[in-house]
Here is the input.
Amino acid sequence: MQISSVAVIGAGTMGASIAVALISHGYPVILKEANDDLLKKGLANVDKIQKKRIEKGLDATTADEEMNRLTGTTDYARIADADLVIEAVPENIDIKRAVLNDIDEHSDVNAIIATNTSSLPITQIAAFTRRPDKVIGLHFFNPAHLMRLVEVIPGLETSPETVESALAFGQSLGKLAVRVDECPSFLVNRLLGRYMNEALYCLQEGLATIEEIDEAAKQFAVPVGPLSLRDMNGADIGLAVAKFNFQEYGERFAPPEILEKMVERNMLGRKTGSGFYIYDEKTGQKQKSNPQIGEILKEIKTPKSASKFDVERLFLPMINEAFIALQERVCAVEDLDPALMAGLGMRRGPLTIASDIGLKETLDKMEELHQTLGERFRPALLLKRLVWAKRATIF
Here is the structure.
């Protein structure tokens, strides 16, 4: 199906950013909100993004041309001619049910319906409509107008034609569009969760300081350290995601205790001015590591599993989860590293890191940690098989 016009439902931070990604690539966009006040805020969000783009070099005339492609509305009737409708409403299944019902009623019968959910089941969301074959996940990464990755997630009933159209649409936005089979947290956030948790476990064990963990990770593979990233995203959101993944995947995703204690103390990160770091009230700039973290760590009894910190340990759970995801055929082998690099800004993906370490050495490290730390490091069968076959690399 050729997609020529798009409607975006929800003009919050994500919806506004998606709208900018669309208008900047030539698509006429209907931006729909629930009421006039929310629509006004949403259009202000778009305007703010455009002004930042102009500051960074976007021609003002081009920006005006893009804005002429955008129409705000509170009326569902305006989405009737859209080829694609993207919902970008809050991550709440009841809200999404109501919105999907309305989209299904007011959009063209041939229109594709996409959900920007970052974790909720596509099959469940598709069942809220009378056209599950035309419902698909389009998981844009925030900010959508800048981040290069979009995960394309079919539900159980999504048709091959819908998948092909969604992949082509993602590519038309200049993005890496990666097909990901449906699973909790999908691909990138699933693997990210394992790495983020392990950073907290290393901190709880006292193997390294906040700054040492962040700096080591940055030197190794990522643009932002895991504890700084947790502060950016919010400890409350991190805890909710950690609990969700634990519920869905079991013990290897067990949330570190420090996260709950931080949420109890409202140490949520940048948005409260206090997380792993202290932030300036006026500028929001990071000032120093938070001394309250030391007090929390005294309450947590986590015996040391090693005599010193090894940065590779942060990434071993991510690597292992990558092999598990491949066992489950969540994505193609050749897509996994590029997806992590585009979605997280990694300089090398988990499979490349494993190859750089050596598959046998990676397995040896995993088995050793499995003996001392348990389920978090139980090696994936695929990794074992590759080592048994004397493969030097997965590629």
About this structure: DSSP finds 17 helices and ten strands in the chain. Residues 6-179 form a domain with the Rossmann fold fold (CATH 3.40.50.720).
